[in-house]
Amino acid sequence: MTERDDVDAIVEQWRRERAGMRPEPMAVFGRIFRLARLVGDEQERVYAAWGISRGEFDVLAALRRAGAPYTLAPKALAAGLMLTSGGMTGRLDRLERAGLVRRAPDPADRRGLQVTLTDTGRRVAEEAADAGLATQRRLLDALPQRDQERLAELLRDLLAAAAPAPAPDVASRRPAPAPAPAPAPAVASRRPRAARLTPPDAAPRA
Fold first, then answer.
1. DSSP string across 125-179
2. Entry pTM
């Protein structure tokens, strides 16, 4: 078993200071956050050999994974990478200046754009992906293969639990329209019958 680490110390301190507190989740998420930071920094050093940042690699990798012709709309890229349109524009500006992507009008949308990997961009995406995977594989080799697979399953379940619930359809929340009132039954107009008057000189019938 691995020796106790700083996260263990943090959990124990909270237990000591707050008797009713249950800090066990910190043992999980504290390590996830630290691991993401450490691995992220290592990936940055790897991708720097190709003159790109980790965020810029993510853009190149998304385009490469899309398959030929390695083209996506900026909105699709931003959604897939959970970026704002401004953040995506900044990355695309840098990648285009480096000759790794090109932007062109979308023939299907006069107001839209398409982003495409250049040949150089495709080579960089593939080489950087191989180098990044080698780093990740080296770190994961600290665990047996069975534990690696189990860890991936557990993290998938945890990520699904953390994902925000989809927003309900606005249309489904609208109240159903009230049924139209039934037409009132037709009422025959009843005109009072004119009184039959007997002429004063008329003789009564026997």
1. HHHHHHHHHHHHHHHHTTS-HHHHHHHHHHHHHHHHHHSPPPPPPHHHHSPPPPP
2. 0.73
